[in-house]
Amino acid sequence: MKNPRDLIKRPVITERTSDFMEQRKYVFEVDLKANKTQIKQAIESIFKVKVVGVNTLRMPAKPKRYGKHSGYTSEWKKAIVQLSADSKPLEYFESSV
Predict the structure, then answer these.
(1) Which pLDDT does position 93 carry in this prediction?
(2) Element containing residue 41 per DSSP (H, E)
(3) DSSP 3-state of 35
(4) What is d(CA 83, CA 25) in angstroms, rounded to the nearest whole number?
(5) By the 8 A CB rule, do 7 and 42 touch?
(6) What is the distance between the alpha carbons of residues 40 and 7, in angstroms, rounded to a whole number?
(7) In this predicted model, what pLDDT tens digit does every residue of 42-71 receive, in sequence order?
(8) Least enclosed by CB within 10 Å: which of 28, 35, 52, 95?
(9) Of the candidates 20, 33, 23, which has an alpha carbon nearest to the alpha carbon of residue 9?
């Protein structure tokens, strides 16, 4: 198995994902080749929580222009992780303001 920190790239923090946090759902950008089982094991080992379910989405590349040059953004994979009711919230997302 790969290092869990290689599978989980970064958290995705938007207004929508902030609303998910109230339901104990957290969103991460993950490796394109990672499957749901690997993502579940990686989250459980990094954050020491119990994961109930994992949903994944492949975000397609989008066309972008910069002046006369055009190209595409990178394709990436998003994972929505549901924690169990008795798990603690992830301190990674807690604000210290």
Answers:
(1) 63
(2) helix 36-47
(3) coil
(4) 6
(5) yes
(6) 10
(7) 999 999 999 999 999 999 999 999 999 999
(8) 95
(9) 33
Give CA angle at 35 (15, 71), nearest 5°: 60
Report residue 1 as tokens: 């198995």
The fraction of the chain above a pLDDT of 90, given in percent, is 85
Helix (H, G, I), strand (E, B) or coil at 32: coil
Which residue in this structure is represented by tokens 């290092």? 3
- 69-79 pLDDT per residue, tens: 999 999 999 99
CA dist 68 and 25 (Å) reads 41
Average pLDDT over residues 20-46: 95
